[in-house]
Specification:
Blueprint: H1 5-44, H2 56-59, E1 70-76, E2 81-87, H3 91-96, E3 98-100, E4 112-116, E5 134-139, E6 142-154, E7 170-177, E8 187-196
Parallel strand pairs: 2-3, 4-7
Antiparallel strand pairs: 1-2, 1-5, 3-4, 5-6, 6-8, 7-8
Length: 197
């Protein structure tokens, strides 16, 4: 092997590694987008789907939802956020959408409906959220609108931010912070919203 073969082989190796990484990213992004579109369609057209194939949690969310079942769709129009919300806040749920934090209320119930998502994907626009922004949650049981009241930054162990602070039902959005941090972020960015109407 001569000296000119080594750079050529390294170049080929890097090209193959880069192509593989790009293919993996495209697969993840397209799979997530297809999942979001399909589940969003099922949510808005429940009568078009055979009700025997729907999980009980999808037909009526007020009964204990099964892990990874669809709770509804969360939208923040000003920030152009629109995503399905799945039951659970584990890696699988957060790969396909936002996740309902177990132990928190469901939309329409008293208490706070807690939702988490990744800061580097779905909830990245939250860095620009402002008081009075509107958030809408659509479920098969109805639509619920919330108005943003405040934001705060807390440590991961400060889970009391999920507790209700008023008599009206609320919504708490949770994502990692800082938004531009590389690796596992040390803090959490919290959005507090109150139900209106």
């Amino acid at each position: 092997m001569n000296r000119t073969d080594t750079p050529r082989r390294l170049g080929t190796l890097f090209l193959l590694a880069g192509s593989g990484a790009l293919l993996w990213c495209l697969t993840v992004v397209s799979g997530t987008a297809l999942f979001d579109r399909f589940e969003g369609w099922r949510l808005s057209h429940p009568s078009s789907v055979d009700s025997t194939t729907l999980q009980p949690a999808f037909r009526r969310i007020r009964t204990n939802p099964k892990p990874h079942s669809v709770i509804g769709r969360l939208e923040i129009p000003r920030l152009k956020i629109s995503t399905v919300v799945l039951e659970g806040d584990d890696a699988r749920a957060l790969r396909f959408g936002a996740g309902h934090i177990p132990g928190t209320s469901l939309p329409g119930e008293q208490g706070n409906f807690g939702v988490a998502a990744h800061r580097d994907t779905l909830f990245r626009p939250l860095r620009n959220i402002a008081p009075n922004d509107r958030i809408r949650v659509d479920t098969t049981d109805g639509s619920y609108e919330y108005r943003v009241e405040s934001t705060e930054i807390v440590r991961p162990e400060d889970v009391d931010v999920l507790e209700s602070r008023a008599n009206a039902p609320g919504l708490v959005l949770v994502t990692c912070y800082p938004f531009r941090y590389l690796g596992a972020a040390p803090l959490r960015f919290i959005v507090h919203a109150r139900r209106v109407g």
